[in-house]
Amino acid sequence: MQARVTRRAALGAGAAALIAPALAAPALAQGRPARIGLILPMTGPFASTGRQVEAAVRLYLRQRGESFGGRRLEILLRDDTGTAPEVTRRLAQELVVRDKVQALAGFGLTPLAFAAAPVATEAKLPMVVMAAATSAIVQRSPFILRTSFTLPQVTAPIAEWALRERVQTAATLVADYAPGLDAERVFKARFTGGGGRVPLELRTPLRNPDYAPFLQRVRDAKPEALFIFVPSGEGAAVMKQFAERGLAEAGVRLIGTGDVVDDDLLNDMGRPALGAVTSHHYSAAHDSPENKAYVQGFIAANPGMRPNFMSVGGWDGMQLIAEALQATGGGEGEALLAAMKGRSWTSPRGPITIDAETRDIVQDVYIRRVEERDGQLWNIEFDRLPAMRDPGT
Amino acid sequence: MLTVLLDGLAAGMLLFVLSVGLSVTLGLMNFVNLAHGAFGMAGGYLCVVLLNRLGLPFLACLLAAALCTGLLGLALERLLYRRLYGRDHLEQVLFSIGLVFIAGAAVDWLMGARQQLITLPPWLSGRVELGGVGLGVYRLFLIAVCTGLLLALHLGLVRTRFGSRLRAAVDDAVVARGLGIPVERLFAVTFALGSGLAGLGGALGVEVLGLDPTFPLKYMVYFLIVVAVGGANTVIGPFLAAILLGLVDVAGKYYLPQFGAFGIYTAMVALLILRPQGLLARAAAR
Amino acid sequence: MRPALEAGFWLLALSGFWLMPEQLPLLGQAAIAALFVLSLDLLVGYAGVLTLGHAAFFGLGAYGAGLLAQQGWGEPLSGLLAAALLAGLLGLLTAPLVLRGGDLPALMVTLGLSLMLGEAANKLPGLTGGADGLLGVEIWPVLGLFRFDLHGRTAFLYALAVLFLLFLLARRITASPFGLALRGIRGNARRMPALGTPVRRRLVAAYALSAAYAGIAGALLAQTTQFVSLDALSFQRSAEGLLMLVLGGLGALYGAMLGAIVFTLAHHLLSEMSPLFWQFWIGLALVGLALAGRGGLLGLGAALLGRRA
């Protein structure tokens, strides 16, 4: 019996932790590295999301050190190509079974997060969603926490703002998948609820979209404003067509969630982007010492890139994991999860909280306008809605 | 209505320039070159680099993109493609998909995974009003350039010595060789020309189609549709097919957005079932 | 292939259960890929009909089995059967459209049909979940005994067993008069009627059979991952299947399976070593193989063995 216990202590701590995390005392875990399985789209059509998140994760470890709660953080990066949920699921399984990770993280798109959710539940490991933004994701498993944002959360404010600006008719144009439908539904509900009218609702395909025909329809319908949501990286294409179709001259104002004026591409969009008003949780121009340090560090480490809202999800995901490790002295499984719930800190984006009940993020949402400063384009924040929750479905 | 027509026309023209080389390689060399889009991508990136980093004028960038990808095509043809002529189609697929993967990863390594954007010169941006209808200047430019190319290609094929040799070789390579036509050299030149055109198309398309390392895979299906519907050995066939595809695509998205891409696929399948050899097939001859 | 080699192949496959106990999810997906490529081989390698849209059947099987489970019938074996019937039926219906013209029209019609199906699945979110994928797929234990576990043990053995049984069936079929007729058609379609072979009917049957196989492969994926997404119907899947088939060697059942396994494992290894640029190395390998080899890996292997002997 004695022999068995020693052997277990020496060799089998990982396996024990897997089978019964509650039994694995922190003392056993101490010293061994804490592994984080980071699953992101690093190639394929959504690669830019993966690159941003990964850059932020690496930056975090460089700036804040690699040891937390007596354990060194080890990142195992995996590419799920962004379009193959069964690969995401398999990678999650492997990271749990073979690499014995202490947490899963990343998840670029909603279906990918959906596919991996049962793995987190079964393995009883925290799953930190750093990018995907459909409301319903956190309900798929009691082990999911989110450090990105939800579409309803950032959509409601812009609808209210448009009403305050006395906009009476607004068309919507969203990408045809869950986050897009979330955005469309919430915008319409808020906007019509406040007396506005939505004469035209358009949905563009998620893959290979060509926005020209859709925007032409908007121009022909002549609404006072156009609400846009498209996935990160697609904003530039919309913006170009918006300009080419002369929608601004036709009196259509561009509003939307911040995805369309993605910081990473904003400079290349050029003049057509000027004046676009969006609501979002993060702008690289956010005025705070935390953000200045973040942007500076990010640009120094990744020349040619500017941190966008995806990156900040990665940064805060790391912060969440690191703080929970620190608080539990290198804890694992459900102890780690418990330490993550209800945590608050000041992120580059401003103050944020991971709600203890919903495990979803509560954060300030800002209304911003694209302006030129020192020869570059930035999303300048001019209004703030403190502590927004996901308004729910 | 007119705007939709014009947009469809522009999209179709662009598609034609991008894919005409593919239909020639398939018709002439009986080679399934799925890497054709990679030449388009190369042209696009060249254009972006020259325009954004070196600040060359847009037209010069277009020209350079076409020339460089043409040369690249020539080099690859001499070094690699040549070895696979006459092989099984499926082995050619294996080879050219491999090239696509390599090209995508290489571009990613050099330029990153994000979308590349260009800023058009002022004289090409904005729109003009013609009889109350607003038309994008760049789309008009696309149509003009592509019409010019089409005419040049057609006349080149019909009027020049090179063209008649090419047509002879397409019809029957064995007899053509017997008549002393340098089929090998013809292949190389044609391949280079097709690649160059793809490069030009890629450069022209940055503004309209977007550009990232997945470009060759993203549009491969469209190129294949053009070639299959147009028939693999003429210039006019692919042209009509590309225009048709562009019009159906744009009109479908404008009038029936809820059906998505369904219209194109249905049209293609129906056309192929009715005319398996392509739009302008010399039907019963073979 | 020699019996000893054959037994070795299957024993090696099975031994993965003990040799790589931590990689079973990967091995399970390799077995599913092998089944998919096997179905392609029946069509492309034996009957000589080219296709770029085989994912249509794979995806239909996946959605069929997934929907069945989602609606409350999670019994896996009947799910496979339902998927096979569904995909086979679609094969029967579409075969006349595909078998009209030559190679290129066949490629494009199959491609077009699979794209249409993909678009239909995308546009029916009420049924398929659209771009978000089919959620809530609950699969009961296999034979009422073996629950699908996190380690992928059940999934691997289940997929391997199905692959083995369907392989045996495929071998019987290809060696039967029907299989020989198919080879004859591939060799010379004009002469076969003279031998009394109803070419068209044989090809339609082969098409439906291959479709059913692909449907089962899709159902396996849906059941083992308990999730179905549009990716199951994608052009990439069709193209990748074809790639694996050519890689392994056309017209040989072992070649098909070998190609699938090698490709899946290589893909996995490379993308783990280099998450950003794995495509480069895969591409290089494909180009090298196309330039060097004739008859894929199997041909290459045979050539090497032959040289040594």
UniProtKB/TrEMBL annotation, chain A:
Coiled coil: none annotated. The keyword Transport applies. One of its GO terms (biological process) is amino acid transport. Residues 1-24 form the signal peptide. Gene3D superfamilies: 3.40.50.2300. It comes from the Bacteria. InterPro entries: BCAA_transport, Leu-bd, Peripla_BP_I, TAT_signal. Transmembrane segments: none annotated. The keyword Signal applies. Keywords: Amino-acid transport, Signal, Transport. Residues 34-373 form the Leucine-binding protein domain. Belongs to the leucine-binding protein family. This is ABC transporter substrate-binding protein. It comes from Roseicella frigidaeris.
From TrEMBL, chain B:
InterPro entries: ABC_transp_permease, BCAA_transport_permease. The chain crosses the membrane at residues 6-24, 57-81, 93-112, 132-157, 186-209, 221-247, 254-274. It is a multi-pass membrane protein. The keyword Transcription regulation does not apply. Its main location: membrane. GO terms for cellular component: plasma membrane. Keywords: Amino-acid transport, Cell membrane, Membrane, Transmembrane, Transmembrane helix, Transport. This is Branched-chain amino acid ABC transporter permease.
